[in-house]
Amino acid sequence: MIHRTINGMNSERMIIVLGGFIVGLCTITLEMHSFLLLAIPILIFLIIQSRYLLYSFLMFLPFTKVLSANIGGISFTIADLLVGFMFLVVFLHALQFKKISLENNDANKILLLKLFFIGLGFISSFYMASNLMHSPSLPAWALGENLYTIALSTNVRSFIPLFVLYIMFKFMNSVDKYKTTIKYTVIGSFLSCIYGVYEFIIKQLDLGFGYLLPGHANEILYFEGFNRLSGTFGEPGYFAGFIVISLILTLHSRSLKIFRQPFIICLLLVQIFCLVMTFSTVGMLSLILVLFILSLFRFKEQTIIILVPLAIFLFLVLQIEIINDVVSKPLNSESASSVDRSATAVAGFNMFLDYPILGIGPGNFGLLFNEYMPTWGIPNVNEAIANNVYVDLLSSYGVLGLILILGFIFILIRNLIHVFLTDTKRVFSPYMISALASLLVIVVAYPTYRYAFLWVVVSLLIVSKQMNDQYRKESQRL
Prior knowledge:
By secondary structure, this protein is an all-alpha fold. Helix content is about 70%, strand content about 0%. The protein is built from 18 helices and four strands. It has helices at about 10-30, 35-50, 50-60, 80-95, 105-130, 145-155, 160-170, 175-205, 235-255, 260-280, 280-295, 305-320, 320-325, 335-355, 365-370, 390-420, 430-440, 450-475; strands at about 70, 75, 220-225, 225. A hairpin with a 2-residue loop joins β1 and β2 (about 75).
């Protein structure tokens, strides 16, 4: 549908509107002025040939830190900007033909729940910001800041998941388009991991940050003397979570026969290398869980493919001291990471106890952290983050938000149960269940739930029921 968008609309009018929007962006941000002017011809081409806009978005999903832009004081990644442009294209098309709603009932319910979730966030954020405006306990970094601006910035980003879901639901209405989504998402993983290997080489040669892409963190993180890779993400742990998810989709592409075997093997090796070099506890634990789940599904026909890597990985954890240290890091009470995450978890829970109904509102965690942190915690001189999506959601949205989230999860699990019971050839169920399990693990160490790539995966989980049913019907006809 997306690649036919322009055919059903006035092309010139749409180009003028979007061109004017781009020029408007140029006028509000001097530092990005030249870049955006050069980008106008590219963006117009992508809008006209909107399937390439979709493919570009899927390939640049992991670019959450590098190639980021500051527009109007709000930082946007290249994936976020592509989401915005693509949503505008898709929504205008739906408006033109009066087909704003979706054919998939579960998808409509998910979007409605998400819309209520965003509305709840705006209400709680601005209510709390008004209460904190003249508070004497504000941290030093927030003094003189407009708290409404902080709340607005955070809540504007809350639209990214909604936009991604709407775009993907509109696009993935057939098995072929589902395969296309998997294909370009996996290609994006390949690009990100190749950049990770490049980052490893640059850091090993000590060539400096001038050889890395704009937006890359200008700091080298170490674990027991080893450089940790962050790839196209802001932190090694975030990169590790993406790698595990993309590894699942790479294996899924094999079951769908999207890529040839040599490319899949090559990509898996690069993914594993980058994952190990992140030295991320959550990444490695998530990988163990994923391999275990896949081994249960593929025990008979693919024992060697799944169980051997699992056995090797467990051997490394038990026998290689540094790998064991990574996995056992959360159990080390003296670890700075453990102390920091424990402190933010306790602070978030304390905030929830004081504001159980609406929560403190997204964007306000850093304003209240020093007031709610435990006595053994270390006060933050900069804005603190929850370091845990569960803590962030509970403290920010309260019980009302939790009810909406549970409704969301109920739809996901119900769909996956249907897929599990009907997917006799195990084309979808092993990978979708592994993806959900992995998501639930990696967000323990994520700063936000708003990453676009997370919501592409969620959209795959939601449409998997429909895709599985279509795939079975097509297989029966052959």
